[in-house]
């Protein structure tokens, strides 16, 4: 096992100092994703995180070279008069595919160092909740054993996994997965869509173009949410700033994709995506109500077709909307949640979940439109 030295980073300035090394590390990491990039987490911290958490990043070095990074933060939470601190990943309420950023040869060493740090620093937090994690059996095994030795409660479950398309052929090969009538229906819908609308699949490279599409996207997305009497993170101004900043950076890097449907001069459906390596991650979408077919499902189908035409065979539609995403033969990936409770009985973390579920039940039972 390779030897490493670890350093705790508790200020935004210390983390920004490592940006170039972080970018290099992410490229060589086995589980690279845009949600573990410096730009994504830096934008999250400046827009949202600085109000709700303290930084507690763990950096690992070998011969003065950054070989591992664990983006931990301490979330400050409250429920009524009660307050508590939860150790989690930076931005985990707004991100997917999270975990330890590490060079392959140092995976075990960083897993051991991270677990040791968590147990040694237990006075800094009351609970642990690591959400939207990718699988890391070595790290999970070390954590579980350490919790047993200390008589802490360790649990792992699957929670809001990502829906991904992984294919090897072309778009017709993908459609061949569907039964005869369903395959014919999608062919018919796509033909009708192409006759009625202009389908735009493009890479945005100018900020002015992005800002124009962004304003229309917000209008379409929030209108769709309002029609369904649903909730969206994009209703929060702070999340809008965070999301806009991340996509703006993708424009500058030349990695921002759009799928847009135009009817005449009117933009009626839009979806953003970011290419990261050999993968494309599609984010929220917005569309107007339409009677013939689901624009939401058509956006996903065109997204797969566009990716395959680029030679990209991994398309990630992230979490949420499980029912209609499953109908498109999308697979589950990642989405694990690890929780550690240092004492038995009902905790503040349990109380938070009880309160959240009770609020949702009351809203659905008495206040839905």
Protein described:
This protein is 42% helix and 28% strand. The protein is an alpha+beta fold. It has 2 domains: 5-161 and 334-367, Aminopeptidase (3-Layer(aba) Sandwich); 163-332, Aminopeptidase (3-Layer(aba) Sandwich). The longest helix has 21 residues, at 207-227. The radius of gyration is 22 Å and the shape is globular.
In sequence order, what are the helices and strands, one letter per element? EHHHEEEEEEHEHEEHHEHHEEEHEHEEH
| CATH H-level homologous superfamily name of the largest domain | Gcn5-related N-acetyltransferase (GNAT)
- The level of helicity is 40-55%
Classification by helices and strands: alpha+beta
CATH class assignment of the largest domain: Alpha Beta
User: How many individual domains?
Assistant: 2
| CATH fold name of the largest domain | Aminopeptidase
> What strand order characterises the main sheet?
11-12-13-14-15-10-16
**Distance between termini?**
59 Å
Mean pLDDT: 88
Helix-strand layout with pairing:
Blueprint: E1 5-9, H1 12-17, H2 19-28, H3 38-47, E2 53-55, E3 57-62, E4 65-70, E5 72-79, E6 82-89, E7 101-102, H4 107-120, E8 127-133, H5 137-150, E9 153-158, E10 162-166, H6 171-175, H7 180-196, E11 198-204, H8 207-227, H9 237-253, E12 256-263, E13 266-276, E14 279-287, H10 295-309, E15 314-316, H11 322-326, E16 331-333, E17 336-341, H12 348-367
Parallel strand pairs: 6-8, 14-15
Antiparallel strand pairs: 1-3, 2-5, 3-4, 4-7, 5-6, 8-17, 9-17, 10-15, 10-16, 11-12, 12-13, 13-14
Helix pairs in contact: 3-9, 4-5
């Amino acid at each position: 096992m390779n030897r490493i030295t670890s350093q705790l980073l508790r200020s935004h300035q210390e983390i920004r100092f490592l940006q170039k090394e972080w970018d290099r590390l992410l490229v060589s990491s086995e589980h690279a994703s845009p949600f573990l990039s410096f730009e994504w987490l830096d934008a999250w911290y400046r827009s949202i995180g600085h109000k709700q958490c303290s930084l507690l990043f763990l950096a690992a070095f070998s011969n003065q070279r950054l070989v591992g990074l664990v983006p931990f933060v301490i979330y400050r939470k409250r429920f009524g008069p009660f307050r508590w601190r939860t150790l989690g990943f930076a931005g985990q309420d707004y991100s997917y595919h999270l975990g330890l950023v590490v060079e392959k040869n140092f995976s075990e060493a960083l897993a051991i160092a991270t677990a040791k740090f968590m147990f040694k620093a237990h006075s800094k937090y009351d609970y642990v909740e690591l959400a939207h994690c990718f699988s890391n059996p070595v790290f999970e095994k070390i954590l579980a054993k350490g919790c047993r030795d200390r008589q802490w409660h360790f649990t792992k479950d699957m929670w809001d996994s990502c829906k991904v398309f992984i294919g090897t052929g072309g778009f017709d090969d993908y459609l061949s997965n569907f039964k005869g009538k369903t395959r014919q229906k999608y062919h018919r819908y796509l033909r009708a869509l192409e006759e009625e609308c202009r389908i735009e699949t493009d890479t945005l490279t100018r900020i002015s173009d992005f800002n124009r599409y962004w304003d229309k996207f917000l209008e379409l997305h929030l209108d769709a949410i309002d029609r369904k009497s649903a909730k969206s993170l994009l209703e929060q101004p702070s999340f809008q700033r965070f999301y806009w900043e991340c996509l703006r950076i993708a424009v500058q890097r030349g990695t921002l994709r759009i799928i847009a449907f135009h009817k005449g001069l009117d933009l009626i459906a839009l979806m953003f995506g970011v290419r990261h390596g050999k993968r494309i991650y599609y984010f929220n979408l917005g569309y107007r109500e339409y009677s013939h077919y689901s624009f939401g499902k058509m956006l996903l189908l065109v997204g797969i077709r566009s990716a395959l035409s680029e030679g990209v065979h991994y398309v990630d539609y992230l979490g949420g909307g499980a029912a209609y995403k499953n109908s498109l033969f999308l697979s589950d990936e990642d989405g694990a949640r690890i929780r550690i409770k240092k004492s038995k009985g009902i905790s503040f973390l349990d109380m938070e979940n009880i309160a959240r579920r009770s609020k949702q039940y009351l809203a659905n039972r008495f206040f839905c439109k």
